[in-house]
Amino acid sequence: MKRDIIILGIESSCDDTSAAISKNGNILANLVANQDVHSSYGGVVPELASRAHQQNILPVVDQAIKIANIEKGQIDAVAFTRGPGLLGSLLVGTSFSKAMAMGLDIPLIEVNHMQAHVMSHFILNKDIEVPGFPFLCLTVSGGHTEIVLVKDYLKMEVVGRTIDDAVGEAFDKAAKILNLPYPGGPLIDKHARSGNAAAYNFPKPNIPDLDYSFSGLKTAFLYFIRDQVKDSPTFIDDHLADICASYQKSLIETVLDKFLRAIAEYKVGHIGIAGGVAANSYLRERVAQIGKEKTLQVSIPKLEFCTDNAAMIAITGHHKFQKELFTDQTIGAQARYQMINEEQ
Fold first, then answer.
1. Residues facing 273 on adjacent strands
2. Measured between alpha carbons, how far is 183 from 186 in angstroms, rounded to an integer?
3. Rounded distance, CA 218 to CA 139, Å?
């Protein structure tokens, strides 16, 4: 009989403090403490984020263990986000994880945040189909936009990435221009649902291969709003839904153009999306539509596993534990941390 594998996952890459418990690939608890302090600043303030992590991490971990109905002594390993992310935030999670692993005398597992987003597809759930290998994952968030060829659980290749801004940042910057509160990406999605996506046209970036660039599109949007408001000061209020729908469509279709090229190039039978922007309703609808049109299997994680969460860290830790991919107490947080193959 196989023994149970219980992993504590800790995520602290940005402004959410999260802890999760997995048992044999099933998530028993997944808690997230948000930081409302950033909303008045229009974005995440790194120093405030790290301080809030220090306040939140102990109660969040303690509550996750209680909800999972386990004892600390049953935990087999601590998996944590090493990077990429905000260094101060990462340091809190890394230090806590090292201390807990040392105190319990159990293995420590470092996890790449972007790899974990892809691994969210393997959180066991009866309502969502687990992808088969190989599959292509479009990983879109506030800091990253990547097309990842997933050959196995820990064997991944980034075949396309942004060369400047990420699509999530492009959403948030546009929301700020529109005077929408932070975080603005979900609000653009909300307003876009009642708007006309063909109302305004924005230029589509022309970047070679499977890479992305969103800086030009962001600038074009800024100039468009500036010029329209100059002629009509109430332009934003009068046309907010149409503006949001048109801009959202431009961003998402730009992302999907390259994703479609990757699907054709790598001839996969299964596709998925991951990351915070994977919660966008238009993107989810379009990916499902692409799967239907091209007869591809489609995996889209539950909304709670798209945004930053520790469940994806725990599930990655589960698979790394099985291969004994442990790290030692000399490990440090890494703000920039490239995804590498770890399959042995």
1. 138
2. 7
3. 20
The residues of the chain that CATH labels 3.30.420.40 are 6-121+305-322, 129-300
Distance of CA 269 to the CA centre of its chain: 23
Q: Dihedral, CA atoms, 146, 152, 154, 160, nearest 10 degrees? A: -20
Superfamily per CATH, domain 6-121+305-322: ATPase, nucleotide binding domain (3.30.420.40)
C-beta separation of 178 from 244 below 8 A: yes
Beta-bridged to residue 102, according to DSSP, are: none
pTM of the model: 0.91
Pair type for strands 145-152 and 270-274: unpaired
Q: pLDDT for 266-321, tens place per residue?
A: 999 999 999 989 999 999 999 999 999 999 999 998 888 988 899 999 999 999 99
List of the chain residues with pLDDT < 70? 1-2, 35-44, 46, 126-127, 340-344
* Contact call for residues 216 and 205 (beta carbons, < 8 A): yes
Instruction: State the CATH architecture for 129-300.
Output: 2-Layer Sandwich (3.30)
